[in-house]
Amino acid sequence: MAVVFNAMKIKPDVLRRAFEHGREAAGWAEPDWLETTPDDFGTGLAARAAADGADVVAAVGGDGTVRAVAAGLRGTGVPMAIVPQGTGNLLARNLGLPLALERAVEVAFEGVDRPIDVGVLEATRRDGTTTGEEVFLVMAGMGVDAEMLRATKPALKRTIGWMAYADAVWRTLPKSKPFRVAYQVDERPLRGARVHSMVLANCDTLPGGLRIVPDSQPDDGVLDLAGFRPRGVFGVAKVWTTVAIENSLLRRFAWGRRVSDRRTAQGRDVIYHRGNRVLLRVDAPIGVQVDGDHLGDAVEVAARLEPGALLVRAPEPSAPPDA
Q1: Rounded to 5 degrees, what are φ and ψ at 306?
Q2: What are phi and psi for residue 300, nearest 5 degrees?
Q3: For the chain, N or C: smaller number of CB within 10 Å?
Q4: What domains lie within the chain, and their CATH numbers?
Q5: What share of the chain is helix, strand, coil (3-state, %, to 5)?
Q6: Quick check: 5 and 60 in contact, CB under 8 A?
Q7: Using CA of residue 303, residue 215, residue 291, residue 8, what is the dihedral sign?
Q8: Mean pLDDT of residues grouped by 10 in the chain (323 residues)?
């Protein structure tokens, strides 16, 4: 096993003790310790560990570290174990992985491998340069969600955790302005919409149980696109009603799904599409983010889904009760 860790997120001695206990209990050899640096957030470290024959590569840190390690392991067949130490820990939450250090380490050694899909995005700037291919595992976005991340205060994240994002939302939303976007899903006709944000989702849940995109799953082989277009004085409230009540509550029940599905696309303040490839184009540069990492402003985003491209260590499924 190789352990890629961000020392800004956890004290190395605490981490080593946890892994030593897990290693002894599982009967594994001493892992290789690979600390991230400003020049390598984990992608190169993980790729080299896989090439050197690591059976598992553990990503210890926040969503950025997990994303970087996943980029290095995508398509290799070497599983990634997640030891979440960040603010949001979005992929771990969406996969139902343990957040406690000792339990997460236990799963790293003794869990089973679960294939999940990987989103790949490339953003083009106004001058024609690109970001290169960037991986996302949970969500990527263009618009107010990226501006929210840019407005999030690091000191507040350290103090109150993911609630710092709520502070950024309330400071960002009143200033946000809708923009015109042209979008295409797979080979379908190009469409246009006036939105505050376009979100590409591989998973559907944010901290607090908010479900941005209904029914999106990390292993369904489909990329979900959601366009948020609040209209009128109460537009923002209607969008949050959709997210907080319709997606996060009603759709848990069969009758709630029927109510949700009866709403016409024309009447929605949130529009949904599904496919494997998505193209977004805007006239003026708009902020872009991937799994909470801000990529800067862009005028075009091209994204695709790679089904089952990453293996993730997960707890052994519970055995069904005896009949």
Answers
A1: -110, 100
A2: -150, 140
A3: C
A4: 2-110 (3.40.50.10330), 119-308 (2.60.200.40)
A5: 35, 35, 30
A6: yes
A7: negative
A8: 96 96 94 97 98 98 96 98 92 94 97 97 98 96 74 49 48 70 96 91 74 82 87 54 48 47 55 94 94 92 98 82 43
